[in-house]
Amino acid sequence: EYMGTQLAVVDVSMAAATTWQEVAQRAAEAESRGEKLVLFMRHARSKMNVLKAQEGFVDPMLWDVELSDEGIEAAAQLSWFPRRLGDLGLRPELIVVSPFQRAIRTAKLVLGPLFGQVPVVVEALNAEAVCDSGDCGRAIEEIAADFPELDFGHIPSLWWWPGPPRADGTVPTTAAEAHERYRNEVYDEPEELIVARAVRPRRLAHGPGAVRSPEQPTPALDH
Q: Which residues have C-beta within 8 Å of that of residue 25, sequence separation ≥ 6?
């Protein structure tokens, strides 16, 4: 349960073992209990994923890393996804996506036919935990310029975790400052912050394009 809304969560990422029969079953169960069905999908393979799979990986300091060619091809091959949901009698009400370009591009490749028909909410709380440079974003103004069809007005310019406070209590206030600090310090986001962020999807139930009908699913493209 979240803020009075019962949630039934299903992982439909490309690497997940979930079958369509399981999605249909969970959807039926959610409807019978008056729950909101949330479909979680991870982004396709990124260039950082490719680099990290190589021996002797050294962080190349790539901010807001792009999808790899393999990831683009794999996501494009799932363009039938909305049609299959329709075959099950499921029409998404809302798409929630991370500001990372790899998540947005995955969403457009997989859920493209739904863009323009279903509200799309960009939510910074969906962002990746900061564990390498690819988990550091870009200034929201740059991302907005790449995806003018989406609304980024509610997201601050520096929207990812900028690292722990310095000795004087200050933290970076701009994307450029956050990038420079990560180059010099390199840090991982603490688990307690990740958990706190993960359990606060406010816009899912109460924000722009908020979900109203419990019988329809909401795809969430994470980090």
A: none
